[in-house]
Amino acid sequence: MKKRFKLLLLLWLASFVLATFLKLAGALKPFEDMMYDYRMKWAFSNTEAPREVAVLLIDEASLKTLDTIVGRWPWPRSIHGEILEFLSIGGARAVVYDVLFTERSTPEEDLALVEKTKENGRVFHAVHLFIDVEDEKNKNLLNRPLPEDFVKRYALKEIYLKKPYITNNYALPYRELYQSTKGIGVVEFAPDPDGTYRRTPLFRVYAGKAYPSMSLSVFIDANGSVRAIEEGNRLNLYLPEGKLSVPYYDGYYAVKMYGKFDAYSVSGVIHSMRQIKMGNFKDLLINPEEFRDKVVFVGASAVGVEDLKKTPMSPTTPGVFLHASIYSNLIKKDFLIFAQDWVQYLTSGVLSLLVVKFMLLRRGLPLRVFLSVFLLVIYFVVCFTAFKFNLVLDLTYPSSAGLLGFFMGLFYVGLSEEREKRRIRNTLGRYVSSAVLADVLSKGEEVLLAEKGVEVELTIMFSDIRGFTDISETLTPERVVDMLNTYFDQVVDLIFESGGTVDKFIGDAILAFWGAPIRYRDHRVRAVSTAIKMLKTLESVNKKLSEKGLPPIKVGFGINTDRVVLGNIGSKKRLDYTVIGDGVNLASRLEGLTKFYGVDIVLSENTAKGLGESFVLRKLDMVRVKGKKEAVSIYQAMEDTEENRKLAQLCNQAFEEYLKRNWDGATELYKAVLELRPEDKTAKLFVERCNFYKENPPPKDWDGVWTFKEK
Fold first, then answer.
1. Among candidate residues 654, 21, 61, 627, the one with its CA nearest the CA of residue 304
2. How far apart are the C-alpha atoms of 474 and 177, rounded to whole Å?
3. What pLDDT, on the 0 to 100 scale, is given for residue 33?
4. pLDDT, tens digit, 9 for 90 and up, residues 21-34
5. Residue 269: how many CB atoms within 10 A of its CB?
6. How confident is the model at residue 417, as a pLDDT?
7. pLDDT number for residue 603
8. How far apart are CA 468 and CA 209, in angstroms?
9. Binning pLDDT at 50, 70 and 90, where does residue 423 land?
10. How far, CA to CA in Å, does 296 sit from each of 56, 112, 286, 320, 328?
């Protein structure tokens, strides 16, 4: 037991430590990111964004439609002015532009966009604060001071971050535009190392001042003001109406994306706006009322605008969807929650421990593999289901720990199983048939490994050739061996065929048992059935002996069912797979009684009561054999024939009368048995016994038990 526990501990620690090392080294991150993306798409592809959020897309249709009117992208800024005018008519709560207007156009065009921005009064324009690497071209651009009026108006004051995202370069809207807009927001969005966009800081810091991301800027404006403090894995936003705690990990916010937005094409808006200007308010492609009280994010989905990003949802997601998703998360408090590190370590440890434990079970390998794989599948299901409820569990690290435990267990099984099979073959090859041995090897029965012995219920058969000593004295040793081998060759196969185990040969006797190593429930039936078949086989055995000039033989069988000790017993140099205990001794004593009662098979009561109606049972007597204090009822087992049923019925009735001290009644019944079988020794014995008791009545405490003084 200690050895197995140490092995379990060793394999578990090896799998857990190796998986932890791979995690800390970053080797598992690509796989975890991949599984994260699968779960995101599976869980939220059909999830709709809040109805108060809409997306206006510069799509391929828009580029194609306006190409014939105003030319190729980028469009004149008056077009964006028309969009803002249309959304003003519709009563949009806010217009969020994910388009950078950093370069000047013509004065007329620039002024047109500024005027429409002022008229709308609820427009948020994009700025770009980012980390740049110094080179010959930009070395004078890094860490330039931002315009004072920009800093004074848009820099946030009470922002306290543990890991601020510090930028060193910027691109701002032209001066008149950022002075006229309702607010600004940072639209810079850096991908993860694999090129996928999953997370972003909610603030960028430039020259010691913090500026909000576009989505957060709109959210802050709607709530009046903000004070932000990063505490643990939370970014606490202190708003006039109360605190909003946002999950924040290592300075980043993980975006929960939505699969469905209320999305519209800019081409439809421009067409509808021009219809309105012409006084046609009917049959509009898009009714401006559809945007009432909505926050409208304007961005590009056309390939030519180059704002398509790889996200968990799609390799070509419009970048504006990221900003719209973050804003939706904030207003709905719909956040992804990542399990804490200690949960992942605990899960990994438990999962790897259970898998290793399953792999070390003393069961067939298919069952062990099934349990291990089933456990890992269950964990996958849990991780995917939890994601549906915004809980993000590390899938790869615990799964890797479990898989490593599985393969280490499998490797150990591969090394040890063949060694164990050789040991089992050496132990059992002499005792059971090849079919039983193969079954044992496939099932890995625990009883085989019990070197200290196990207590188990078996049916034991002891058979002996009657008068063998007298026969052997008349034969040469070579002839004795030939006779025994002729007999054993026939009957041992019958024992093997019934799933029995040959414990040992004791001269002319055979000790066999049923119920181990394969634990048959019907071991009583198998033992008795084999004894009857062995009796039938004696006819062919004696025929062969006669052909060799050897005398015929008769065999008696004693069969008992009891709990006995089974195991590999002996010394380090020599072990025998054997049974010991009173139950074995009783089987031997019962065999000795066959001669006394003149029958071939004697069963104990414990064997007889488990046979059901498989055989005809004749009660012989209640006896106390030499060496035992307890009395036991004994029976003769016979094949189910009409004659045997009649014989058993007479004998069983006779014995009941015998126990009632009805000597005359018992005698009559036993005489009826003799009429059926004149040579029946048991019936003759009881007739004599009844006559004796009739003349010499037994004492009052007589219980009908016959005590044997000899074996």
1. 61
2. 128
3. 94
4. 999 999 999 999 99
5. 27
6. 60
7. 96
8. 110
9. low
10. 7, 20, 14, 10, 12
Interior/surface letters 22-35, b for 16+ CB within 10 angstroms, e for the rest: bbeeeebbeebbeb
**Contact predicate 198/311, CB 8 Å:** yes
What is the structure's pLDDT at 211? Answer: 96
* Longest Cα–Cα distance in the chain: 144
Q: On the CB side of 295, how many CA atoms lie within 13 Å of its CA?
A: 25
In 582-663, the DSSP E strands lie at 601-604, 616-624, 632-638
Query: In which band, very low, low, confident or very high, does the pLDDT at 435 lie, cut at 50, 70 and 90?
Result: very low
Answer whether residue 434 shows pLDDT above 80.
no
More confident residue, 82 or 136: 82
Give the list of residues 6+ apart from residue 125 with CB closer than 8 angstroms, or none.
Answer: 97, 101, 117, 173, 177, 178, 181, 183, 184, 185
- Cβ atoms within 10 A of the Cβ of 507, count? 12
* CB 358, CB 405: distance < 8 Å: no
Whole-angstrom distance, CA of residue 83 vs CA of residue 2: 78
Q: What is the mean pLDDT of residues 33-50?
A: 95
- Mean pLDDT computed over 197-203: 96
**pLDDT, tens only, 550-567:** 999 999 999 999 999 887
Separation of alpha carbons 130 and 206, rounded Å: 9
Reply yes or no on whether the pLDDT at 44 is more than 90. yes
Residue with tokens 């969807």: 321
Q: How much is the average pLDDT of 391-420?
A: 84
If DSSP codes are grouped into helix, strand and coil, which group holds residue 646?
helix
CB under 8 Å to 97, separation ≥6 — which residues? 80, 123, 124, 125, 126, 298
Distance, first Cα to last Cα, the chain: 42
At residue 439, the pLDDT reads 46
621 DSSP β-pair partners? 634
Report the alpha-carbon distance of residue 448 to residue 516 in Å, rounded: 9
How buried is residue 237: exposed, middle or buried, by Cβ count under 10 Å (0-12/13-18/19+)?
Answer: buried
Q: Which amino acid is at 341?
A: D
Q: What letter does residue 339 receive in the DSSP assignment? A: P
The helix or strand, by DSSP H or E, that contains position 705, with its residue range, turns out to be strand 705-707
Where do we find the tokens 């079970």?
361
pLDDT per residue over 491-515, tens digit each?
A: 988 998 888 888 888 888 999 999 8
Model pTM? 0.65
- DSSP-assigned states of every residue in 454-502: EEEEEEEEEEEETTHHHHHHTS-HHHHHHHHHHHHHHHHHHHHHTT-EE
- The two counts, helices (H) then strands (E), for the chain are 22, 29
Q: Are strands 555-570 and 454-465 parallel, antiparallel or unpaired?
A: antiparallel
Q: Label each residue of 420-431 as H, E or C.
A: HHHHHHHHHCCC
